């Protein structure tokens, strides 16, 4: 039986947050609405999409949705720690487009065609007036607790081209979970009008390499302890040797 899903969530940029969630589910339709309201209201639509299940694990998604790339979750409730591992990895966030995914018990494949991939709050700052992006991802369960993921994204925009390759592997045994991840991002950034893009990216050509290793031990059904080591290296025209950051947490 085909299944349709509609999801909407919003977020606002300010301090003092209150959250309300509404969920509705039927046999062929499910809807979830999440809203975050803060003292000074500046609401941004974080996600708003519709899923249509074609059967046999094939799903078509249309709307604004999260990137498939990256091991860490976008929401705090999905993180193994309070903080995220990266500050400048270049991993995509949310984008508008159409996505096809195929999922089985042991594998996952996804292909997304989007209006953009890397611009931070592009709807607010209008940095990407004309762009398109393609994102693809593949994951495979290798058995014996091992799984691998590889994916990438490419964006062609007026401000310059950007691409990223993301790969990680996981190993789960008993109460232990081990993860290793590597990201390679390249920005070929120019200027857009009179705005110098390198005011926040650091230069016209920016290369970012980042990664993490993490171990998580679940000592009860609802509690666990995590150790993580993350690394970032940024090379740009304004920093010949790059900026290295090694952060244990």
Could you explain how this protein is built, in words?
The chain has 249 residues and is mainly beta. The chain has 2 domains: 1-54, no CATH class; 56-248, Porin (Beta Barrel). 3% of the residues lie in helices and 64% in strands. The chain has 2 helices and 16 strands. The chain has helices spanning 122-125, 198-201, and strands spanning 4-12, 17-25, 29-38, 43-55, 58-66, 94-103, 107-114, 131-143, 146-157, 160-173, 176-189, 191-192, 195-196, 205-217, 225-236, 239-248. The strands form 2 sheets. It has a 14-stranded mixed beta sheet, with no helix packed on it. A hairpin with a 3-residue loop joins strand 2 (17-25) and strand 3 (29-38). The protein is globular, with a radius of gyration of 19 Å.
Short description:
The protein is mostly beta strands and 249 residues long. It is built from 2 helices and 16 strands.
Labels describing this entry:
249 residues; mainly beta; Porin; 14-stranded mixed sheet; two-stranded antiparallel sheet; 2 helices; 3% helix; disordered N terminus
Strand content: over 45%
Name of the CATH class of the largest domain: Mainly Beta
Structure classification: mainly beta
Task: Give the overall shape, derived from the CA principal axes.
Answer: globular
Q: Write down the CATH topology of the largest domain.
A: Porin
User: Regions with pLDDT < 50 over 5+ consecutive residues?
Assistant: 1-35, 120-128, 191-203
How far do the termini sit from each other? 45 Å
What does the largest sheet look like?
A: 14 strands, mixed
Q: Number of folding domains?
A: 2
